[in-house]
Design brief:
heterodimer, A: about 130 residues, alpha+beta, OB fold (Dihydrolipoamide Acetyltransferase, E2P), 4 helices, about 20% helix, B: about 375 residues, Gyrase A, domain 2, Elongation Factor Tu (Ef-tu), domain 3, six-stranded mixed β-sheet, six-stranded antiparallel β-barrel, disordered N terminus
Amino acid sequence: MTEKKYSKKHEWLEVNGSVATVGITAHAASQLGDIVFAEVPAAGKSFKKDDPAAVVESVKAASDVYSPLTGDIKESNQAIVSDPSLVNKDPENLGWFFKITIKDQNELKDLMNKSDYEKYATENPN
Amino acid sequence: MSAANTELKQTGKTSLYEFHKSSGAKLVNFAGYEMPIQYQDGIIQEHTHTRNSIGIFDVSHMGQLKIECSSSIFPYLEKIIPLDFSAIENNQSKYSFLLNDKGGIEDDLIVTKVDTGIKIVLNAACKDNDAKIIKDSIGEGFTAVLRDDLSLIAIQGPKAVDAMEKIFKDISKLNFMYGNYFEYNKKKIFITRSGYTGEDGFEVSIKNEDVQDLTQDIMRVSDAKLIGLGARDSLRLEAGLCLYGHDIDTKTTPVEGALSWAIPKIKKEKGGFLGDKIILDQIKNKPKKIRVGIRPEGKIIAREGTRIFSNDQKEIGHVTSGGFGPSVNGPIAMGYVDYDQSKEGTKVILKVRENMVQGVISKLPFYKKSYVKN
């Protein structure tokens, strides 16, 4: 397990060997407001970096969750499908969206660390 | 992750603007006004607080038109608003529309007859155009003024009546869709028992300089909370009420909007208003499409613009309002479908992104409470 990394589209990811766990940041969850629906990708689906991979809907609007990496889905979090409010309650832990294989380690370099992301999120609130 | 958010522009502010900000409001541009979409509690909690207790909504962006007149104005107004004005009691309110010559709805509105004339509450985005249409129709003989000096707040929910009674004696005696004058800060103000949430409640028209005092007074005598436009939208959708510009517009008639109940019988028989031929024909021969309620199965939300298909794959309409209903605890929608597919219980398919979601035509409102009649 390594330090969490963050994308400009407000996803976090946590690398564990050749697999990364992805979710939306606490900042994003709070911006969205009450989350009432989550759609996660099926295991086996492949995504390129920045492809829309999941959907999260708050009372206000539907938003895409993008894959911060190229890879194949290993597993998706069914707990947020049955209880979408988990994403509000615990966005960067129990509210994870999917686990994806890491095809290209170089893509990890484009991501931010926590303090850089926090600065970025303050400057780019949406 | 990309959250859709409305861009903030320097625009109109209501008299409660600073109060909203200091109360933790998230502000968005709505119809040219910076309005609170929600406060810190969030939309779902604001929604349920209104359903279970009492909420205060700033709706001062809406237009408050006052026409000083006698009954001699009725024929002019009845040309553009399909009501029987002489049958409305003093201090009684009616829901109606401003029509165009195709029978389309230029705006939906609330008319209240008072002893000095007529008050009309209009949607914010339409109010300037509405005022022009009304002034053109009534001519030079009457003065119609959009009252910028007045704010409008709605106090909604089952505990609204007790809170308001503490401030305005005997207000609990008002029936739903009736109003009267009350006194506040030694000034006469007009309050109606009405609202747009499906709850009992009141709408208070009050001088801009007094609106914050009254808002805080109501919060002092009750557990009232400020409620934003987000919860206002989910409350009105659960109550099956139309959002102008979405569920009804200039291209839909009251019949298509399933609102012909708001046209009095005499007008349905004799017409005499703009677009009457089209509207009367639709009443007699049924419209091609009509507004319905739709319950999608499961949790997926069918938002505005979602295409609706029949069970045999034929496209039959689209969603005009859709969201999550906190009190029904599931997704709800309204939309237009072909008349022959509009029967309650008809199964439909909603195309949400790549998903084909089962849905069923449902009775409106999705959530019902009884309004007060003394």
